[in-house]
User: Which sequence fits this backbone?
């Protein structure tokens, strides 16, 4: 060794906190980031196995539905009757069953409405900005709507199979039906319900279904979701689902076959869950001819053209038509109806015996053109292609995208409601364009639309088929689905602007959330999450990307993930089933990963704190002394006064009196002494033969030895991808696995022996670990510029913006506030 | 419709007419992120607001009654920057701190609005973040404050008015 670097391990001063747990102890600083997760997961049983599969006695309930429903367009009202055949496949005898009445959320007496504070009604920022006692236009209009119209279910009758009334109790958005006789395991019960309700105006009430008004043309789109009393879930892990619907936590439901007859004005077009059963009665001969062509086409073909839809929406009919749909094995049912709909369709072919051909379709008004006819149905087909490769063939005969609102999206089996529309084209008065389009759309509208359709169609796989429980765990479907959406976006086109176009990397996007103090672990119940979107959508996406690309590798990840999807399609998985399956099918211990990413709020931030370079020393004082002297000279340059004295020609006293020189003037401190040489000889004598050979070879091969210190600042164990740049400019990529942190989760030192000198090293150069701070990822350290510094360095952009800001400020006349507000009026 | 207060009867309508709850459940929650960080290299406290472009266009467009407001135009970005400037405040003991509006730029799906304060923030600050909350009732704004090696967050949602933050480092 040329010099000895002594590291004293840091003394850990224990803070006196006596609260230890299995991971963090009260003595010492051992932190068990790699502790087995099995001890915290539910005990495996006959329903769910330790390998994450459905157990030998796995069960779930079944609810088959027959529904007849009528849309009264004049009254904006739904009237329906349903017959539920409920099959008790649980091992328990049931004396009552629960249904969900989600329309009750909109009544003035609902738990949601009654618990709404004045501030929540006003919008909290408005409340705070305006001081106390604020009433917004929105609240007033919402109130007036409620005064004019009673919302919520009107349950007209609940009867059993023989038509006898059965007692029922409504508890906010839930209804308990007391069975005449207990329902034993394996038995069926039939319940019939007649109901009606007034449809909510979607943009006033903030709902998942309702109707939309196009006020300029007095035309409407109806889209019905949560529109019939639905069976609540009864499960092996939670019994009856008993949480009221407060508007955020979505649904978990039972599978069943649906037979639904929808009666609407006879000039409406209906899009619905299921397959149409009576095309000859509801479609014209021309429409059916076009549909036959679409069933052979791999590009969308209009069933109803934009021109026909425009013509259709200007006429109003007084007659009705009944559209009949059947859907097998679905957990929910939704539909949309309007005379405004343009309708296109194409065929999507897949390797599947049951559904070799899937009809991809879109329904949208002329206001959504031209972007919808160009992209929507293609995106539906693309989504199925990508998702099926990662999971299972698309399990239904149709997949539909319906434009029902300006932004946002919502999913149901075989049908999705999607937002994003172009903007009306505004003519420039000075330079009118003769052949201007009616509508234009921005880049964001385009990619927003493609993104939302992928996302919502993707939900038909998760959770409509892999039926995870969104009331309990939002991330299980939103997170997995956002992950697959992200993959499908990469496969739509390169540089797809998901999250950010310059990076296209969710792992850079998520770090701002993950470093924040204000967050809950992913494994937090849906209703208690602090920040819904990053917790349930983007953080799980980031986690699964790290898992697939960096921790497991694509082959192992894809195999295990597909196994999870196959095991749980048409069944109801819990988080532990996912965690266990991914480990079981890949042969990789991921307990540390689930714990870090899903059970903790740690983030990824590893710093390269030091790199020390050594050469293997010959220990021969005659060789080493020269090297030591040169090293000293490099580290301690000659003193400036001494140099300048020499330059001035000044002679030292010694130079003028050379007779004063002695032994110490002839030999510096590096000159080896006889004792040094004796020590060297003794050392060689003590070496075993193999040790002597190893030393001799290492010296002759001139190996470089590196000790690299890493500090885990974020706390989350992570693999360490390293890019090493060698002295000759060549590069080597090394991946150190996450298990390197198992004995010390904070500080580790890695030893590397290399045959070349290292010029620099970068940690995570491909941005694949979600590292939150890249300023500490380089050795030697690099100085990074902040985003604002970069912005200011682009002088043209900066100056143009400064001028514009100034101009706009002047235009406003220096008045503060761009908020438009009505003046106050004292009344007494 | 009257709203009673102790001193007088007031009729207050706040212009949220175009802002009725724009729907976005299953896809994306409306929200903005603001980061506040001291940059020792420049001696400035840097404030970066990140808004979804689509939300900002629709929201600020509704407030300004400019339905065609676009983040693709320099002027559109400037309007949004000025709007953000008015909806975001930091105060010290002596009242509001004067933040310089540097500009705005696009970053993918987002628009970034930049503000700076010369020097460091006082030890105790009060923060008010009303960005887009006059349009989107469910808007949740997160302010991340870098304090030493840690990041602390202020969330502006239900009931949130001014938040007080005391620097630890």
Assistant:
């Amino acid at each position: 060794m040329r010099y000895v670097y002594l590291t004293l391990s840091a003394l850990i001063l224990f803070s006196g906190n006596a609260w230890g747990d299995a991971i963090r102890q009260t003595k010492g600083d051992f932190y068990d980031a790699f502790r087995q997760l099995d001890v915290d997961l539910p005990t495996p049983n006959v329903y769910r196995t330790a390998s994450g599969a459905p157990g030998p006695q796995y069960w779930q309930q079944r609810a088959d539905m027959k529904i007849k429903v009528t849309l009264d367009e004049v009254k904006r009202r739904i009237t329906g009757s349903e017959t539920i055949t409920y099959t008790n496949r649980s091992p328990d005898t049931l004396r009552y069953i629960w249904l969900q009445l989600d329309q009750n959320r909109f009544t003035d007496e609902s738990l949601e409405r009654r618990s709404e504070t004045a501030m929540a009604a006003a919008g909290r920022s408005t409340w705070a900005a305006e001081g106390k006692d604020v009433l917004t236009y929105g609240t007033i209009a919402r109130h007036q709507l409620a005064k004019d119209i009673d919302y919520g279910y009107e349950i007209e009758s609940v009867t059993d199979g023989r038509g006898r009334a059965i007692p029922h109790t409504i508890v906010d958005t839930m209804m308990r039906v007391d069975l005449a006789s207990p329902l034993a395991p394996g038995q069926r019960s039939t319940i019939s319900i007649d109901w009606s309700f007034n449809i909510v105006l979607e943009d006033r009430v903030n709902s998942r279904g309702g109707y939309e008004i196009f006020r300029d043309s007095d035309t409407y789109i109806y889209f019905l979701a949560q529109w019939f009393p639905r069976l609540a879930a009864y499960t092996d892990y939670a019994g009856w689902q008993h949480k009221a619907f407060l508007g955020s936590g979505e649904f978990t439901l039972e599978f069943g076959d649906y037979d639904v007859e929808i009666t609407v004005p006879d000039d409406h077009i209906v899009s619905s869950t299921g397959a149409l059963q009576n095309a000859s009665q509801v479609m014209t001969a021309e429409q059916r001819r076009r549909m036959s062509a679409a069933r052979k086409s791999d590009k969308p073909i209009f069933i109803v053209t934009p021109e026909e839809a425009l013509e259709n929406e200007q006429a109003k009919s007084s007659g009705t038509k009944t559209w009949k749909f059947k859907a097998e094995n679905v957990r929910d049912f939704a539909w949309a109806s309007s005379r405004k709909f343009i309708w296109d369709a194409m065929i999507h072919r897949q390797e599947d015996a049951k559904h070799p051909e899937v009809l991809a379709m879109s329904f949208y008004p002329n206001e959504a053109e031209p972007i919808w006819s160009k992209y929507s149905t293609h995106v539906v087909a693309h989504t199925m292609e990508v998702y099926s490769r990662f999971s299972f063939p698309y399990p239904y005969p149709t997949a539909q995208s319906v434009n029902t609102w300006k932004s946002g999206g919502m999913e149901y089996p075989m049908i999705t409601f999607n937002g994003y529309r172009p903007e009306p084209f505004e003519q420039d008065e000075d330079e009118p364009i003769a052949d201007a389009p009616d509508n234009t759309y921005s880049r964001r509208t385009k990619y927003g639309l493609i993104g939302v359709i992928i996302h919502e169609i993707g939900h038909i796989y998760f959770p409509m088929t892999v039926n995870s429980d969104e009331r309990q765990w939002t991330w299980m479907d939103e997170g997995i689905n956002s992950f697959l959406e992200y993959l499908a976006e990469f496969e739509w086109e390169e540089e797809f602007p998901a999250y950010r176009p310059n990076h296209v990397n969710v792992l850079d996007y998520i770090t701002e959330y993950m470093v924040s103090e204000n967050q809950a672990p992913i494994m937090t119940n849906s209703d208690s999450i602090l920040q819904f979107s990053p917790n349930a959508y983007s953080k799980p996406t980031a986690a699964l990307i790290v898992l697939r690309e960096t921790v497991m590798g694509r082959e192992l990840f894809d195999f295990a993930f597909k196994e999870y999807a196959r095991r749980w399609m048409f069944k109801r998985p819990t988080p532990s089933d996912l965690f266990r399956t991914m480990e079981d099918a890949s042969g990789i211990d991921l307990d540390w990963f689930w714990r870090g990413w899903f059970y903790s709020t740690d983030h990824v931030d590893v710093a390269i704190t030091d790199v020390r370079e050594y050469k293997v020393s010959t220990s021969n004082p005659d060789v080493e002394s020269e090297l030591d002297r040169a090293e000293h000279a490099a580290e301690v340059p000659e003193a400036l006064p001494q140099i300048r004295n020499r330059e001035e020609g000044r002679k030292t006293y010694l130079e003028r009196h050379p007779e004063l020189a002695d032994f110490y003037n002839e030999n510096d401190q590096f000159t080896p002494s006889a004792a040094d040489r004796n020590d060297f000889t003794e050392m060689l004598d003590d070496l075993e033969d193999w040790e002597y050979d190893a030393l001799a070879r290492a010296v002759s091969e001139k190996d470089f030895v590196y000790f690299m210190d890493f500090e885990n600042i974020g706390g989350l164990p992570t693999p360490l991808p390293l890019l090493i740049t060698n002295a000759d400019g060549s590069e080597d990529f090394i991946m150190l696995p996450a298990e390197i942190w198992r004995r010390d989760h904070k500080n580790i030192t890695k030893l590397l022996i290399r045959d070349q000198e290292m010029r620099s090293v970068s940690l995570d150069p491909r941005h694949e670990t979600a590292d939150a701070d890249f300023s500490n990822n380089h050795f030697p350290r690099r100085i990074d510029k902040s985003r604002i510094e970069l912005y200011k360095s682009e002088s043209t952009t900066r100056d143009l913006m400064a001028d514009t800001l100034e101009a706009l400020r002047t235009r406003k006349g220096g008045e503060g506030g761009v908020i438009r507000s009505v003046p106050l009026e004292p009344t007494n | 419709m009257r709203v009673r207060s102790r001193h007088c009867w007031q009729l207050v309508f706040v212009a949220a007419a175009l802002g009725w709850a724009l729907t976005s459940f299953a896809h994306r929650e409306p929200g903005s992120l603001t980061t506040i960080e001291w940059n020792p290299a420049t001696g400035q406290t840097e404030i970066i607001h990140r808004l979804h472009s689509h939300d900002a266009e629709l929201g600020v467009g509704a407030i300004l009654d400019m339905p065609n407001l676009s983040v693709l135009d320099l002027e559109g970005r400037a309007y949004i920057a000025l709007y953000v400037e008015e909806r975001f405040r930091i105060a010290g003991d002596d009242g509001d701190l004067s933040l310089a509006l540097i500009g705005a730029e696009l970053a993918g799906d987002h628009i970034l609005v930049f503000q700076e304060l010369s020097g460091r923030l006082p030890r105790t600050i009060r923060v008010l973040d009303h960005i887009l909350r006059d349009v989107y009732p469910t808007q949740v704004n997160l302010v991340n404050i870098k304090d030493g090696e840690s990041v602390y967050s202020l969330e502006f949602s239900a009931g949130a008015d001014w938040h007080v933050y005391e620097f630890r480092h």
